[in-house]
Amino acid sequence: MCLCCGSFGKGPEGQLIVCSQCGQCFHPYCVGVKVNKMILSKGWRCLDCTLCEGCGKGSDEARLLLCDSCDISYHTYCLDPPLEKVPPGGWKCKWCVSCDDCGATSAGTQCEWQSNYTQCGPCASKTSCPVCNIKYNLNDLMIQCLHCDRWLHGSCDGLMTEEEVDRAADYGYQCLYCRPKTKCSLGALSGMSCSSSASSAGAASFSLFSSSASNPLADNILLTESGIKQMSRLKISPASRRRAKVKNKIK
Question: Which residues of the chain register pLDDT less than 50?
């Protein structure tokens, strides 16, 4: 029997859901819940038994979010990543969330949910740069990562001209978050330096990149024309060896 209306109901209206905490039964329409896969797999708690799934506490109700789809609850600071404040509209947990723009149920490769779990990473990057978090202007140079599909300012990755952006895109651009970590930035800025060590002590010099014009790479990072000129000057000379002094013979 439903605890709210006190009736059993007939047919589809007679279906009841049980609180996994207190065991009380309710009609889904009496508690404003639509039974979905999440509720069937993880269970459901009534409002009297609601608690944070992260810390297991029901205190600090002002910061306790209730999923619009499955009624699961989390404190804003118990989420991963945490929310700075309670979202003004609705909120959905990570199992029920989807992007409002494209309908994706995943935040994207190497991405996190944006705009209070309402936008995936690629969709959010169409309006603001994920590196500097500044909204794009009309004449900004932008480039899209081939791996995670996010857009960003070319200047945030050292690409200062349209030619550099086009060249990086032609070689299959990967953003700062997707490519291997390196001490060298993608765009070759004046005065930049890259540290490296020689593979052997007797090597006369060590080249950081392939000098071929068709493959201007340094540690698998695409170089611009100015970067090639800059890095061609970087050479590591072998350590000089001291000559052994000849000892004078004692007469």
Answer: 183, 188-215, 235-251
Tokens of 195: 């540290």
DSSP state of 136: P
Q: Report the C-alpha gap between 148 and 2 in whole angstroms.
A: 48
List the structure tokens of 117.
Answer: 């779990």
Tell me the CATH class for 1-47: alpha beta
The alpha carbon of 17 is separated from its chain's Cα centroid by a whole number of angstroms, namely 37
Residue 241 DSSP label:
P
What are 132's two structure tokens?
Answer: 């500097």
What is the helix (H) or strand (E) element at residue 121, kind and residue range? helix 121-124
- 64/57 Cα distance (integer angstroms): 10
**Residue 119 to residue 170: CA distance in whole angstroms:** 28
**Segments making up each domain of the chain, as ranges:** 1-47, 50-92
Q: Rounded distance, CA 216 to CA 225, Å?
A: 8
Task: Select from 141, 186, 136, 140 the least CA-distant residue to 162.
Answer: 141
- The beta-strand segments (E) located in 107-156 are 142-144, 151-153
The answer to whether 1-47 and 50-92 have equal CATH topology is yes
Class assignment of domain 50-92?
alpha beta
What's the predicted TM-score (pTM) here? Answer: 0.52
Residue 195 makes CB contacts below 8 A (sequence gap 6+) with 183
